[in-house]
Amino acid sequence: MGEARDQILAGIRKALGRGETDGTAAVSAADARIAAHPRGLVPARAQLPREAQVELFVRMAETVAATVARVSDADAVPDAIADYLTGLNLPQQVRAAPDPELDALPWGKRPLLTVERGRAEAEDQVSVTGALAGVAETGTLVLYSGAERPTTLNFLPDTHIVVLAADRIVGPYEDVWDRLRALGALPRTVNWITGPSRTGDIEQKIQLGAHGPRRLHIVLVGNGG
Fold first, then answer.
1. Which residues constitute the domain of residue 107?
2. CA atoms within 13 A on the CB side of 86
3. Same domain, yes or no, for 106 and 149?
4. 34 vs 221, higher pLDDT
């Protein structure tokens, strides 16, 4: 098997005019690239001033059927969530990630809103999570797994509410990888979520909620300044 592979690679090198090699140089180049984390191409639409990035994120998220509520500060988040549930005639009950940032929200302002913490269960209709970042170029949310961020919350409930600080919105995907590497060891799971779950397999018509939440609601906190 090894001899056949070497013959094939030798033929490719000859056709490309690269000569013989034992593969060491190629491996070294690959290792260097992985270690250096070179940034890929960044589209022009992601190279915007801060405020414009936030506006682009909102526009792109709404384009893919997510909904966005903007609030001035974290104290307004429980009201925004309760009002959203009321508007859809959903129960005032959510399953929230055991995230210290979410725990710090003044949930007591809405005493009729029940907040349970932990991983999602089959009977949970609504989940609330935070997010590492929002990507302006596509309206994508980036969430990563951990003890305080159960991944089941992102996919099991029918309605997913994400609380996102506007200053966590970045222009391109490349900036998100920088933030992930800054965490230290990469998390086990990184979810890139662009709008509610959907499929076009059924008669080529878009159906929401096929493989996950059919509603994605973003509570955007602050102006990103």
1. 44-221
2. 9
3. yes
4. 221
Fill in the DSSP letter of residue 199: E
Instruction: Tell me the whole-structure pTM to 2 decimals.
Output: 0.83
Amino acid, res. 191: N
Assigned token pair, 63: 């384009």
Tokens 């060491």, residue? 24
Flag whether pLDDT at 225 surpasses 70: no
Q: Are residues 48 and 26 in the same domain?
A: no
Residues 173 and 84 in one domain: yes
Strand duo 126-129 + 159-165: pairing: parallel
Q: Are residues 76 and 22 in the same domain?
A: no
Q: Give per-residue pLDDT as tens, 7-63.
A: 888 888 788 876 655 556 666 777 777 777 778 888 888 889 999 999 999 999 999
Beta bridge partners of 163: 219
- Distance of alpha carbon 98 from alpha carbon 100, whole angstroms: 7
Q: Is the dihedral of CA 124, 95, 142, 109 positive or negative?
A: positive
> How many structural domains does the chain have?
2
Tokens of 159: 């309605």
User: Are 57 and 23 found together in one domain?
Assistant: no
CB-based contacts of 43: which residues, under 8 Å, 6+ apart? 137, 172
- Helix and strand tally (H, E) in the chain? 7, 12
The answer to whether residues 135 and 217 belong to one domain is: yes
Beta strands 126-129 and 93-96, pairing class: parallel
C-alpha to C-alpha distance for 90 and 75, rounded to whole angstroms: 22
